[in-house]
Write a structure and sequence with these properties.
Elements: H1 2-15, H2 32-41, H3 43-59, E1 65-71, E2 76-81, H4 83-91, H5 102-105, H6 109-116, E3 120-123, E4 135-146, E5 149-160, H7 167-201, E6 206-211, E7 216-219, H8 221-226, H9 244-253, E8 257-266, E9 269-282, E10 285-295, H10 297-341, H11 347-374, E11 382-385, H12 386-403, E12 407-411, E13 419-422, H13 424-441, E14 447-455, E15 458-465, H14 472-475, H15 493-503, E16 507-513, E17 517-525
Parallel strand pairs: 12-14
Antiparallel strand pairs: 1-2, 1-5, 3-4, 4-5, 6-7, 6-10, 8-9, 9-10, 11-13, 14-15, 15-17, 16-17
Helix pairs in contact: 3-7, 10-11, 12-13, 13-15
Length: about 525
């Protein structure tokens, strides 16, 4: 059969007018663009071929061999192996980009293989041209399923007649079969990997995978959105502020950690997750760990609202029971103290009575805050000229600002006649509470800014300072009753403020960083649409 193929091609060479003494040389080449396009199309085949080919070269133990890979048209798209043989082939213009055509190269094992889809070899005098009588060529076909149909071509092994052996063709056949299995396995693995990524990327759970050294090897987009630290493959999971200690503990001890509440803070957002850090074992040896992050922010906020409501309920019961009993004797005591202060007294007594009066006023204010928290009055909505109202608030606070050597910056919306429908006294109470905190958090000579903007029929009042700032931990607690970081604070001012704004159908948001200052944004509807409020 082999002789029949050779005899047929030899007859065609004579018909082409070829002479055995000629030097065969492919004259047809393709553009660099076309060559690179074919290289990309056959990229996985070329990668596997090179790996198996280099292993084959080592097994041949010093024999001079070189490999050629062609596509289904006979275009040489890759070559590697012995430098001398490759230079000899290059002198014959057989190199990457050359198109092997029978009427230009004569008897060629590669072309016979392409035409008949069989392994073939041409050795010594099998070649039509005398210049090739000292060489041998083995060629095998390949056919690999791809995304755009079958990708076909040949793998050829070129060697000298001295190093020729019949087992080389059998070895090349086995190599091609192994390559086929490897490519099929890769395709299966890639399909499974794509399915894995599809499943992971469509989970509502954040996934982060690290190896035994804590290096991130994979993560999904949910984890990327949750974790404020920038994460990338190759970085250490230990550097992730909130998760690093958990990964370190799990990988070091191999212990599973479940249901750990983790708080992430970034750009004014607060995300709460339940984290599971699970070790990965292989043959009893830890290979890494992966984290599952379940976003429970809504549940957490609801729980916090319930806690606040329960506290407010407790305050209400306490205030209802004590306000009357405390206010009556307190009023009497303050009246008697005031009468005594109006008399002629020695300086020490006057000073001590001043202290007593200040403390009584503080107790009275505390009782008033209790009552406000437990049973806030329904807002009395009236039209407010915004800029005049804000000026009146700052004028009221000027004395407090001067005491701390703080100046106010006014940055109002330009509309002088802008109107807000709200309870002026309640909104003033909110602004005074927040301005008081801003003044006390600032250093002497610094400024506190009061800014107003109007957009989409809503007024936003912004109070910002460059003071000490609020830690992420405390930022989640500031609206809780009784929470305060002040030595003499009651922890009710901001709680009252949040409740007043909520009753006006508005919202308060806070952005703060330690050492960089705080910004409170109070957003209110200009129309004054109110939520139902207890009376």
């Amino acid at each position: 059969m082999e002789n029949n193929y050779l005899a047929e091609v030899r007859r065609r060479c004579i018909a082409y007018g070829m002479q055995p003494t000629d030097v065969p040389s492919p004259l047809t080449t393709v553009s660099e663009e076309h060559l690179q396009r074919q290289k990309r199309l056959y990229a996985d085949i070329l990668e596997v071929t090179k790996g198996f080919g280099e292993n084959t070269i080592q097994l041949l133990n010093g024999q001079m061999v070189s490999f050629l890979v062609t596509d289904d048209k006979g275009l040489v798209i890759d070559s590697f192996g012995d430098r001398i043989i490759r230079e000899q082939l290059s002198q014959l213009n057989i190199k990457e980009g050359s198109l092997l055509i029978e009427r230009e190269v004569g008897i060629c094992a590669t072309l016979i293989t392409l035409e008949n889809k069989i392994p073939f070899q041409t050795v010594g005098t099998d070649h039509y041209h005398l210049v090739l009588h000292e060489s041998a060529c083995h060629s095998v076909p390949f056919s690999v399923p791809g995304n755009h149909g079958l990708r076909e071509g040949t793998i050829s092994l070129m060697t000298s007649i001295v190093d020729f052996s019949n087992y080389q063709l059998a070895m090349l056949v086995n190599m091609a079969e192994s390559m086929g299995r490897e490519l099929k396995l890769r395709k299966t693995n890639q399909r499974q990997l794509d399915l894995h990524h599809l499943m992971v990327d469509n989970l509502d759970t954040g996934i982060l995978l690290a190896d035994r050294s804590g290096i991130v090897v994979d993560f999904n987009h949910v984890a990327l959105n949750i974790i404020p630290d920038y994460i990338s493959v190759g970085q250490s999971s230990y550097q992730i502020t909130e998760l690093g200690p958990l990964f370190l503990q799990t990988i070091a001890n191999g212990q599973r950690q479940r249901g750990i509440e983790v708080h992430f803070h970034a750009s004014g957002t607060h995300t709460v997750c339940l984290a599971d850090i699970i070790p990965i074992f292989e043959n009893g040896i830890i290979q890494g760990a992966y984290a599952q992050l379940r976003d429970i922010t809504e549940r957490y906020l609801l729980e916090q609202q319930i806690i606040v409501s329960e506290k407010l309920s407790a305050i209400g019961k306490l205030a209802a029971g004590l306000a009357h009993e405390i206010r009556n004797p307190l009023t009497s005591i303050m009246g008697f103290v005031q009468i005594i202060r109006e008399r002629q007294l020695d300086p020490d007594t006057t000073r001590y009575l001043g202290f007593v009066h200040e403390e009584l006023v503080r107790v009275k204010n505390l009782v008033s805050d209790f009552v406000t928290m437990s049973k806030p009055s329904f807002p009395i909505v009236k039209p407010i000229e915004i800029n005049l109202f804000l000026d009146s608030v700052l004028d009221f606070m000027e004395g407090q600002a001067a005491l701390h050597d703080i100046r106010f910056i006014r940055d109002y919306h330009t509309g002088d006649q802008d109107i807000l429908y709200a309870d002026a006294s309640q909104i003033k109470q909110v602004l005074i509470n927040i301005l008081q905190n801003a003044v006390e958090a600032s250093q002497p000579k610094e400024a506190v800014t009061l800014k107003s903007t109007i957009q989409n029929k809503h007024l936003t009042i912004t109070i910002s300072d460059n003071g000490t700032g609020i830690s992420p931990e405390n930022l989640t607690k500031i609206q809780n009753p009784f929470f305060t970081t002040k030595e003499n604070g009651t922890g009710l001012g901001l709680s009252v403020s949040y409740r007043i704004i909520n009753n006006h159908n508005g919202e308060i948001t806070v952005d703060s960083r330690l050492g960089a200052g705080t910004e409170f944004n109070i957003r209110l509807p200009l129309s004054g649409i109110l939520k139902e409020c207890p009376v």
